[in-house]
Structures are given as structure tokens and as C-alpha cells.
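Give me the fold.
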Amino acid sequence: MKLKPIYADILAIRIISNVHPDMIKKFGLPPNHRSMGMFTITMDDVGMVALDEATKQADVEVAYNHSFYAGSGNASGPLSGEFIGILSSTNNEEVRSGIDAIVQTVKSQAHFEALNEEETHALFAHVVPRSGKLLSKEASIQEGEAIAYLIAPPLEAMFGIDAALKAADVELRNLFKPPSETNFGGGLLTGSQSACEAAASAFRDAVITVSEKPTHY
């Protein structure tokens, strides 16, 4: 079954070139990090992957990342979306490079997949071939390892994670028990890139079976 990709929208971006010392302190930034870049996006998991990619393509740190409660359908404003991500660095050029990496990742690399025509039922089965600073920390692994980043609605996610673990030589490093802030669930699995690909495929297939026959057991 071929699923239609659903791409996230970046809603707002700003770069602060000379961050106030009080902000540096509150965000726990390195003292020499005086530049900050921030963005909001409609899909939190895509935002996480994009932030992680930024740490591989620019000399930046992830200063802050957080999902908003109940998802983008219940956003606090038109530019809020589902997630905020903040980068920091010693200069604007590196922050701008990081933001460029985020935009490119959101536009062409990481996306959800629709399980129905209305695009109201969706999953995220994305393989990161080489983890950066953020996802390595989230999964408690070394930078550069492969990750299967698997997300779906609550029941589908737990059913799918079990199928993924049984289908490939992967390890569950982080389980997002439902409900998350956005009322989804899922996990981060690690292994070889090929094993992560197999796990993502098994996860996708399992979630599809639930969507097709939700009460069949």
C-alpha cells in the first residue's frame, strides 16, 4: 500500500543576533553563544529530525525543543503550530546555516504518511542514517548511529513498535508511551541502517493493518 506523504509547514522563523545575557542564562547556553535561531512547525517529529540535521550541517547546539499540548489543531495562535525549536551558536552565520538545513529537511526529507484520504490518520516511519547531537541524546547512543523514528496514534504506535522489534535486529532505545503532548506514541529504535529500514517498514505495515481493520482481533 503506497501512502501519500504529508509535509509539515514551517510557520515562523527568527534569528536573534545578540541574545540578552538574561536569556543566555535562562536557556543555559554556553557563554559565548550570542546568536539564536528559532522556528515553529506544524509537526513536532519532523521538527525534531530537522533540528538534528541542523547539528550535523552547522556548528550549532539545540538550545530548546518542545511540543505543544494537543497538537497543531489546538494551537495558541496561527504561527504556533505543534512544536518550537531553538538553535544557538557563536555567530549568525552558523545559526543561519542551521536554519537552512532545517528548512531543507522539512521541505524534502522528513514527512508523515497519510492512512486515509482526509489525511486525518497518519504515521511517521522515518530512518535517520546518521544521528546528530539531538537524536543521539534522545536515544542515548553515540552520534552517527542509525535510528528508526517511529510515531503513530496511540494503539497503532504500540502495535507497530512491537512488530518493528520482531522484524529486525534493532533495539528500542526510547519508548514514547501514549499519550504524548500531541496525543501520539512511538519510539526510537537503533541498529544498522538496513535493520532500521526493515523495522520502519514493519512498523508501517502493522499500522496499516490497524487502520484497515481497527476492531479485528
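The radius of gyration is 17 Å.
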